[in-house]
């Protein structure tokens, strides 16, 4: 399996930071307007999936992307190691109950893809079972889109040097101590294995395309992601709903 090309994480020197930050701000404001309009109409929904190695900035990107959105109509779910109850069900059980209702913009910080990544790298299940999960995920995402949920999938591609810097900040900076986990360093030692599995995911679960986002700088990461989200919302047909008749007793 071909290694994921880390050139995507390189800093784009052709971009002017201040101009891009202002452009991004304008994009985020329009995203907020369209998100609220979609909520009001309640005919479509949006699911945004963020995947990436530890310290790729999934939480921060979520906060920045939704800055001008109305909290009404926004839902965020973060998927970690399955609980005993979750593990007792099929692997999509815990995911499906968090999929967005009509009008809702839902963000997954990690997702059902963790149930391919971790078991593959740690050799928890036989390859036949992993193969079945690829097929089930493709079907699951197809069902969502057929029911009016637009699915966006982002891989935040952080380079090894920047990832190490951010992991060390979690040890050195008190305000980031709460993010530190010793297991992150163990996971980092298996970076090549995780990237190989991601490459397989990109190839086998690409009916809904993946967006590879350079994640070494927060302002570029937010800019490239927000452009995709804006374009997606602009392509969803939506109208402000008509005035509803209110009957007073």
Q: Could you characterize what this model shows?
A:
The chain has 249 residues and is an alpha/beta fold. It has one domain: P-loop containing nucleotide triphosphate hydrolases (Rossmann fold, 3-Layer(aba) Sandwich), CATH 3.40.50. It is 48% helix and 13% strand. It contains 10 helices and 5 strands. The protein has a 5-stranded parallel beta sheet, with helices on both faces. Helix 5 crosses helix 9.
- CATH architectural name: 3-Layer(aba) Sandwich
How many E strands? 5
Secondary structural class: alpha/beta
CATH superfamily: P-loop containing nucleotide triphosphate hydrolases
List SSEs in N-to-C order: HEHEHHEHHEHHHEH
Q: Note the quaternary state here.
A: single chain
| Unreliable residue runs | none
Mean pLDDT across the residues is 92
List the strand order in the largest sheet: 2-3-1-4-5
- Strand % is 5-15%
Number of H/I helices:
10
What number of structural domains do the residues give? 1
- C-alpha-based Rg, rounded: 19 Å
């Amino acid at each position: 399996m071909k290694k994921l090309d880390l050139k995507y994480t390189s800093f784009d020197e052709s971009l002017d930071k201040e101009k891009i930050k202002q452009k991004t701000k304008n994009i985020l404001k329009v995203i907020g307007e369209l998100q609220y309009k979609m909520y009001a109409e309640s005919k479509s929904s949006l699911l945004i999936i963020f995947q990436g190695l530890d310290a790729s900035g999934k939480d921060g990107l979520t906060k920045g992307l939704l800055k001008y959105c109305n909290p009404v109509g926004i839902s965020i779910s973060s998927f970690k190691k399955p609980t005993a109850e979750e593990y007792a069900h099929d692997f999509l059980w815990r995911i499906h109950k968090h999929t967005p209702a009509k009008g809702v913009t839902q963000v997954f910080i990690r997702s059902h893809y963790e149930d391919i990544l971790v078991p593959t790298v740690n050799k928890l299940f036989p390859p036949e079972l992993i193969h079945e999960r690829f097929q089930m995920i493709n079907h699951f995402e197809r069902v969502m889109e057929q029911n009016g949920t637009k699915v966006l999938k982002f891989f935040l591609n952080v380079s090894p040097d920047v990832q190490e810097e951010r992991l060390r900040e979690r040890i050195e900076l008190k305000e980031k101590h709460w993010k530190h986990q010793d297991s992150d360093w163990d996971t980092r030692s298996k970076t090549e294995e995780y990237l190989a599995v991601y490459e397989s995911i990109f190839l086998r679960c690409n009916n809904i395309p993946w967006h590879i986002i350079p994640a070494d700088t927060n302002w570029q990461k937010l800019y490239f992601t927000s452009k995709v989200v804006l374009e997606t919302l602009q392509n969803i047909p939506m109208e402000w709903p008509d005035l509803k008749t209110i009957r007073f007793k």
